[in-house]
Amino acid sequence: MSGAVTLKHIAERLNLSISTIGRALADDPQISLATRERVKAVAGELGYVAHSGARAMRSGRSTLIGLIIPDIQNEFYGTLAKALAEICANAGFQLVLGITEDDPESEERQVRGLLEARASGLVITASPRPTRETLSLLSRSTCVQLIRRTGQLEVPWFGIDEEAAIHSGTAHLIELGHRRIGYLGASTTLSTGRSRLAGFERAFTEAGLEVPREFVRLGRPRAAFAAEAFESLWTDGERPTAIVAAGARLTVGLLQAATRLGVAIPADLSVVGYGDAPWWNPNLTTISLPVRDIALACGEFLLRRIRETEPSSARSAAGQSVTFASALTPGASTRRV
Amino acid sequence: MSGAVTLKHIAERLNLSISTIGRALADDPQISLATRERVKAVAGELGYVAHSGARAMRSGRSTLIGLIIPDIQNEFYGTLAKALAEICANAGFQLVLGITEDDPESEERQVRGLLEARASGLVITASPRPTRETLSLLSRSTCVQLIRRTGQLEVPWFGIDEEAAIHSGTAHLIELGHRRIGYLGASTTLSTGRSRLAGFERAFTEAGLEVPREFVRLGRPRAAFAAEAFESLWTDGERPTAIVAAGARLTVGLLQAATRLGVAIPADLSVVGYGDAPWWNPNLTTISLPVRDIALACGEFLLRRIRETEPSSARSAAGQSVTFASALTPGASTRRV
DNA sequence: CTTTAACACGCAAACGTTTGCGTCACAAGT
DNA sequence: ACTTGTGACGCAAACGTTTGCGTGTTAAAG
């Protein structure tokens, strides 16, 4: 608080110099063992707590790592955050959380804040259209993209083969005999939205069918959008016999709306979800994503880059990217027609 | 990065002093408007980013606020974190996330880390048995307890009237005619565990019934425990006709296990959940908690305390606490017997 | 023409660490 | 007795800001 204990206080207490105290606490063999122990004893007694800010300023490197994501309420981002927090803690870093709600200005503020804090690294799931300034700031930091991939940002990326993921789910429905298949997806301003829709379309063209565009609904990747979109899909005109939810929050929204409308799954409607939803009853047929593995890989990569960047100056590792595969987990929410 | 732009660089570029640059960027009227604009222009051109660490060291206050919670994967803590992150962002603070997994040593490391970072404030949902050192560190910080309440920690608390919450859910089941009611709860080493169990028991004693202790299962507040406990409850001996899940993660675990075992809800078993689970099918009868409101109130209180603490030295606001009420949300997961 | 005052800016210290180098005392080697 | 060595510690600078105070210039007031 106001009057925290510093090296100086310990030094005065022991009639030693500040540097000796500093070295003693760092277990520098240059200081005699006896002194080291006396120092540590007094430090404990006084309740000394090192000032990582001062240390960071002197040494040039902070122990902060930033995580910038659009949301944190749902399990998908929760799992990402948890995995990264674990990795950070193990490596002696602290995770600073920035929620953007996909708002470019909020995103810019968060990024700026993290750069001001001199975060050693940044993990970001960028908003659809990041500010020029955001991009400029990010390009000057040690940064990794997670899940979404922004073209204008030349930094490594860790994510999912979204196209293959949705393709597998859609193909599964086609194989079960469905033709009027609905699609709830993020708008194509998002890299994930583009890839997923492409996967959906490829499943049809590969089967020699036409893409049922009248059943495709694109919007914000929120539960609210999915609920609303599904409702319109269900009440206006011809109904689909199956739906692909191309996003974790969209899956939630779809299921909520279906429950609310009394739509029986899979009797009235077959559903393929995105991301695991172990809570759904009955078990959901879903596209399983190795969320935790992605986050771990991303975190470890970032830490490696931070350690590399430390001695020499920044090296451009722009092109790198790692793609993870999904798996279709069969459940009871789809049926043959 | 390696060579960040500092006030000094701008000063040299403009043949001005460092202090003038600093004041100009802070819009100090002491500096002429013309100079201020020239400085800002050059700052933008050079890509100057203030060093909040240095600022914090000089001014004594950082822009960091710590959030220490056992988990972040589930929606309950996700909602807390999101609300807090919003409040922090709006007030110009940054949220540092620490996940403890209810491990006292991890918790101590996180708390120490935040004190080292000179976080302006701390929000903590403490583990069952915090370390002595943890308590000592916390007592020296501006800190608020969230949800759980640790007796040894004399700091303000924001949480739920847990006893009343579980009481309402249990009484609801009793009123529906249930007698063999199971209880899945956190162990009573947690303040929440104690209060919730007390609410469960009071519902029976108030109705002149005996507490069905053979159906009570206490353990770690994780989905895994609830699943396991329910399975044993369901397969060993006489079955309960209803269950109260006294925790968000326990609710998830119970529902998963029930789905897995093919237990029909509410035909075979009535269920009262804890915390909203809008995704469950059919709608869950649940104890709704004003999670977001709690977090917002907690965050605003903390910010106020931070601002108060700033000028004078720390004031003890030890005894304060705010209790929020829950509401029983009727759903389709309970039936009369 | 001098005194004052307003204005615009510079100096330097301080925040708490870390670290290269210097210093001092004492013991061992010639 | 004189060098050499070494173990144990102190000095001071640096990291990037902020800020109280001092200083020089210019214009208005006497």
TrEMBL record, chains A, B:
Q: Which domain of life is it from?
A: Bacteria
Give all residue intervals belonging to the HTH lacI-type domain.
5-59
SUPFAM superfamilies attached here? lambda repressor-like DNA-binding domains, Periplasmic binding protein-like I
Protein name stated in the entry: LacI family transcriptional regulator
- Keyword annotations from UniProtKB, A to Z: DNA-binding, Transcription, Transcription regulation
Q: Which Gene3D superfamilies match?
A: 3.40.50.2300, lambda repressor-like DNA-binding domains
- SMART domains listed in its UniProt record: HTH_LACI
Cited InterPro entries: HTH_LacI (IPR000843), LacI/GalR-like_sensor (IPR046335), Lambda_DNA-bd_dom_sf (IPR010982), Peripla_BP_I (IPR028082)
Tell me the classification of the organism that encodes this protein: Bacteria, Pseudomonadati, Pseudomonadota, Alphaproteobacteria, Hyphomicrobiales
